[in-house]
Amino acid sequence: MNSVVARAETPARAVAPYVRIDRLTKRFGDFVAVRQVSLEIQRGEIFCLLGGSGCGKTTLLRMLAGFETPTEGAIYIDGVDVTQVPPYERPVNMMFQSYALFPHMTVAQNVAFGLKQDGTARPEIEARVQEMLALVQLDGYEKRKPHQLSGGQRQRVALARALVKRPKLLLLDEPLGALDKKLRERTQFELVNLQEKLGVTFVIVTHDQEEAMTLASRIGVMRAGEILQVGTPADIYEFPNSRFVADFIGSVNMAEGRLVEDEPDHVRIECAQLGGIVYVDHGVSSPPDAPVSVAIRPEKIQLSRERPAQQDNVLQGVITGIAYLGDATRYLVRLPTGFLLRVTAPNVFRHEERLQHDECVWLHWHASSPVVVTR
Amino acid sequence: MSGPATRGARLARRIAAIRGGVGRRAVIALPYAWLAVFFLVPFLIVLKIAFSNIQLSMPPVEPVVTWTADHVLQLRLHFSNFTFVFGDRLYLAAFANSLQVAGVSTLLALLIGYPMAYGIARAPGTWRNILFLLVVLPFFTSFLLRVYAWMGLLGRSGPINALLMQLGITHAPLQLLQTDFAVYLGMVYSYLPFMVLPLYSAIEKLDLTLLEAAADLGCRPTKAFFAITLPLTKEGIFAGCLLVFIPAVGEYVIPALLGGPDTLMIGRVVWDEFFGNRDWPVASALAIVLLVVLSGFVLLLQRVQAQEGDA
């Protein structure tokens, strides 16, 4: 990997991976939806597959559920090869994006459906349905039909129905996609709480990076059928391994440059767009003189009226855009080279002489802030 | 001053509403007028005849309302036609037989039509259109012609018998025509499209993720069909069965042309009473009873469906 940072590997695994995806490929005719994806997911994890539409994340999820048969590769769940096991025999349940509640059944019948298929005894079915409905705070709604419920309630019924069989793996396809913003924020935390309480392993598919960041213990960023990077939300955000990941997660300033000084503990990059040399306090594994990209997050750039004390990574620019968001303010700063930098500054003080339009300001950032990506 | 302004606006809205109402009513009135002239009025005439008495005249019925010589407006309703119809075992047998033939034909059409509709609904795009066209294609030819064609096909020297003999299944031609078999065949053949079309539209609407959800929850495909697909396409099944059953009960042409002399169906009895016996009142009474029975079926089904919807 051409990753910028030489970080310690994740701690050695004591247990075998719970879900192992081994070089999985899915082709639809000439189109390759998923290409040679390998992935290991631990028990009790919330793993998020994040990517834009058509990146193959849903196809990957559907292969885990058994709705699509992989063209190549294998899937192991808890050590068992389930690649050829039909969906109705997999220890996996799914919460569908559309919820797919059975419209002709009541809430209780929907939740009981999976248990009935297993031939569970009636008293046990009733007890477990009750328990599940209580868990998603829907007691009293047993007799309702899906069309008599709100979107949030339907989502909870779908969740209860998928969890009642105590699956080894719960797959969630855009679980919060159909909810409005407020409900979404509340449900995110409910979902995480529920997962912690039950200890079920979650695999979530989403295109919403905020959803992925709040829910996931680890994120796999996908593009064009491939997984580009796997890591914790903080890993993905602070140490993206490619231009795509840096750009896809959060907001970023991306400038093209060339390595001019390559030492193990620091590098200097000549960057025409930023009008000078960028000093980075960590090494980069890239051939000298190679074209690289420097990515700096807007919140890592500081603005000031006075010239900052530090020598490196200091620029001057003119403010051309201001968006006051309450908690922070977003600035657009034009450099003498014409390059536009996005800067986010927290609004710490209530009384403050705020920066104005067309004001000339100093910009600087810490030498550890830029991420250098080579692909 | 918002008072007059809002009042004016309200008035304008009301005028618009009335105008819209007039337009809407006119649009609805047209089909209603059509039904009134070509269904309600003939129905009332038949109803009147059913309470009349046979008489040698043109038309061969007594007038129900008469103005007598001594200036009395007389309304004479003969219930004898109905008592006669209900008293005669022949008519009751004809009714029972019609309901049976229609019922069995409907069931057969459903059993054949459901897989057909399912296949069409699940076929890939271009195939679906072709298959759909094939279902509707028979309507391009006259119904009567198609029944005649079956006479030719089923006849003693027809191609079906020829094929059976060629294959050595039989040595002498079989009596296929003028049997109950031919009647069922004709019924199912003729009414199958009416079964397939509503079924198709119901199955096509079915959300396939529901079947995936069922499979995901441990339900095998055959079981999912009975637990999910069948209940969710029930409306199509009801509609298709009504569309086949109702015309099949009163069917005249198919039993007349394909059935034997002993194929007793109510449509044929009504025909015989009208044109053979020239007993219009009894024929009308039979028609009325048939209508009441069928309306009963429709109402019952609607009731069942309404209850399902509520629950």
Overall description:
The complex is a heterodimer of chains A (375) and B (311). Chain A has eight helices and 20 strands. Chain A has helices at 57-65, 107-117, 122-135, 151-163, 181-198, 209-215, 233-238, 243-248, and strands at 19-28, 31-41, 46-50, 72-77, 80-81, 92-95, 169-173, 201-206, 218-223, 226-231, 253-262, 267-271, 276-280, 291-296, 302-304, 314-324, 328-334, 340-346, 360-364, 371-373. Chain A has a six-stranded mixed β-sheet, with helices on both faces. In chain A, strand 7 (169-173), helix 5 (181-198) and strand 8 form a beta-alpha-beta unit. In chain A, helix 3 packs across helix 4. Residues 1-13 of chain A have low confidence and may be disordered. Chain B has a domain at 88-278: MetI-like fold (Orthogonal Bundle), CATH 1.10.3720.10. In chain B, strand 1 (65-67) and strand 2 form a beta hairpin. Chain B has 311 residues and is mainly alpha-helical. Classes of the chains: A alpha+beta (375), B mainly alpha (311). At the A-B interface, strand 6 and helix 2 of A face helix 8 and helix 9 of B.
